[in-house]
Amino acid sequence: MSDKEPLFSAKNRKLLTNPLGSDNPITIQVLGICSALAVTAKLEPAVVMTISVMAVLALANVIVSLLRNTIPSRIRIIVQLVIVAALVILVDQILKAYAYDVSKQLSVFVGLIITNCIIMGRLEAFALGNRPWPAFLDGIGNAAGYGIILVIVAFFRELLGSGTLYGFNVIPQAFYDMGYQNNGLMILPPMALVTVGIIIWVQRSRNKALIES
Amino acid sequence: MNTQSNTYTFLYAAIMVVIVAAVLSFTSLTLKGRQNMNKEIEKKQDILKAVNVASTPDNAVELYDKYIVEAIIVNSEGEVKSNDKAETFKVDLKNENKKDLSERNLPVFIFNDTKVGKKLIIPVRGKGMWGPVWGFISMEPDRKTIFGATFDHQGETPGLGAEISKAEFQKPFTGKQIFDESGVFTSLKLVKGTASNNPHAFDAVSGGTVTSKGLEAMLQDNLSSYEKFLKSSK
């Protein structure tokens, strides 16, 4: 890679945009499914989770990329894990002191961020072999690709399951008076999996190149 | 340098662990004070929320001092052990609930406001699905009718168990009775969908069965230790 390569060269832009579509971490690589099921009952936690994963993934990618030539390959997974865990605790501690409300919302996600396979996957597959700037973009891009699916799933689950969007009622009372009911099944984790499945199906039928032979 | 050798690997791991530990402990120590202050403010806000007084982190301390006129510690026999406001605030239910009933320090916060009148606020703490759940129950001066309730949790699932911290879940507690018609302590029972016209029951959270059951057990365990206090000095 030459030093004169522009910050947002075509190649670097791809790092940001590919994970949103044809290389999406959830629908194509099928990583990070566990947290996608856990936090998508409502839009709000899905958004909070996206932002936290983005912060941690981008930072961890940059740190691992800076250290990539020094990390002994036999303990690289442990090194990555320590970096991610330390970052998550650091972020949590700072939020607890300076943004207590946000930290309360994050409570359950902190553990989930550490176990998110996307983070380990990107550190291992990308940050270990690339420079900090592309690694940073890759982190942002993959977190965004993860987030977009989370938000889509949460949108349908909250709308159909609770009749609200971001906590606000969107289904008029008249519908309920006519006999409409919220589908309680949508709130339960299995429907998250079904929703993710439908997204994967829609995506693959629109883009045949993604179908494995 | 050979980054594959054993010596290098061991040194690398050792140095990394020391650096990370130092950074984390430094952060923890420097932020401890602020974090504890935030927790105290939150507790004050929760106590006020149980009597429907809305507060912000900025004015919580002031409102708490204004409305909570007295705070006492009672024992399971209903006798007052202490009436030191600061000491009562510091009682940690996590430790108290481990003790034998007769040795427990049971805090009661007394709220007074010229418009709403006098209310008693009782803290409760129990187990949810993933971690502790806690809350504050405020009682009318008749000591059997619930005036308001607020619950919070450490890590219940968002959208499921975590719904206990929402106003929609907490509001229906107003007006519930923890003693039956003949004056026997009943606490509140968990039911499915039919609690709105039953003063001795509350509705479960859909998808949050374990959390709801934990809440039921929490009310039973904590409120029952106040039974004699609530029955005495009418």
From TrEMBL, chain A:
<feature type="transmembrane region" description="Helical">
    <location>
        <begin position="184"/>
        <end position="202"/>
    </location>
</feature>
<feature type="transmembrane region" description="Helical">
    <location>
        <begin position="79"/>
        <end position="100"/>
    </location>
</feature>
<feature type="transmembrane region" description="Helical">
    <location>
        <begin position="46"/>
        <end position="67"/>
    </location>
</feature>
<dbReference type="InterPro" id="IPR011292">
    <property type="entry name" value="NqrD"/>
</dbReference>
<dbReference type="GO" id="GO:0012505">
    <property type="term" value="C:endomembrane system"/>
</dbReference>
<dbReference type="GO" id="GO:0005886">
    <property type="term" value="C:plasma membrane"/>
</dbReference>
<protein>
    <recommendedName>
        <fullName>Na(+)-translocating NADH-quinone reductase subunit D</fullName>
        <ecNumber>7.2.1.1</ecNumber>
    </recommendedName>
</protein>
<feature type="transmembrane region" description="Helical">
    <location>
        <begin position="106"/>
        <end position="123"/>
    </location>
</feature>
<dbReference type="InterPro" id="IPR003667">
    <property type="entry name" value="NqrDE/RnfAE"/>
</dbReference>
<feature type="transmembrane region" description="Helical">
    <location>
        <begin position="135"/>
        <end position="156"/>
    </location>
</feature>
<dbReference type="GO" id="GO:0016655">
    <property type="term" value="F:oxidoreductase activity, acting on NAD(P)H, quinone or similar compound as acceptor"/>
</dbReference>
<comment type="subunit">
    <text>Composed of six subunits; NqrA, NqrB, NqrC, NqrD, NqrE and NqrF.</text>
</comment>
<dbReference type="GO" id="GO:0006814">
    <property type="term" value="P:sodium ion transport"/>
</dbReference>
<keyword id="KW-1003">Cell membrane</keyword>
<comment type="function">
    <text>NQR complex catalyzes the reduction of ubiquinone-1 to ubiquinol by two successive reactions, coupled with the transport of Na(+) ions from the cytoplasm to the periplasm. NqrA to NqrE are probably involved in the second step, the conversion of ubisemiquinone to ubiquinol.</text>
</comment>
<keyword id="KW-0830">Ubiquinone</keyword>
<keyword id="KW-0406">Ion transport</keyword>
<dbReference type="Pfam" id="PF02508">
    <property type="entry name" value="Rnf-Nqr"/>
</dbReference>
<keyword id="KW-1133">Transmembrane helix</keyword>
<keyword id="KW-0472">Membrane</keyword>
<keyword id="KW-0997">Cell inner membrane</keyword>
<keyword id="KW-0739">Sodium transport</keyword>
TrEMBL record, chain B:
<dbReference type="InterPro" id="IPR007329">
    <property type="entry name" value="FMN-bd"/>
</dbReference>
<dbReference type="GO" id="GO:0006814">
    <property type="term" value="P:sodium ion transport"/>
</dbReference>
<dbReference type="Pfam" id="PF04205">
    <property type="entry name" value="FMN_bind"/>
</dbReference>
<keyword id="KW-0739">Sodium transport</keyword>
<feature type="transmembrane region" description="Helical">
    <location>
        <begin position="12"/>
        <end position="31"/>
    </location>
</feature>
<keyword id="KW-0285">Flavoprotein</keyword>
<keyword id="KW-0997">Cell inner membrane</keyword>
<keyword id="KW-0813">Transport</keyword>
<feature type="domain" description="FMN-binding">
    <location>
        <begin position="128"/>
        <end position="226"/>
    </location>
</feature>
<keyword id="KW-1278">Translocase</keyword>
<keyword id="KW-1133">Transmembrane helix</keyword>
<keyword id="KW-0597">Phosphoprotein</keyword>
<keyword id="KW-0288">FMN</keyword>
<dbReference type="GO" id="GO:0005886">
    <property type="term" value="C:plasma membrane"/>
</dbReference>
<dbReference type="GO" id="GO:0016655">
    <property type="term" value="F:oxidoreductase activity, acting on NAD(P)H, quinone or similar compound as acceptor"/>
</dbReference>
<keyword id="KW-1003">Cell membrane</keyword>
<keyword id="KW-0406">Ion transport</keyword>
<keyword id="KW-0830">Ubiquinone</keyword>
<keyword id="KW-0520">NAD</keyword>
<dbReference type="GO" id="GO:0010181">
    <property type="term" value="F:FMN binding"/>
</dbReference>
<comment type="similarity">
    <text>Belongs to the NqrC family.</text>
</comment>
<dbReference type="InterPro" id="IPR010204">
    <property type="entry name" value="NqrC"/>
</dbReference>
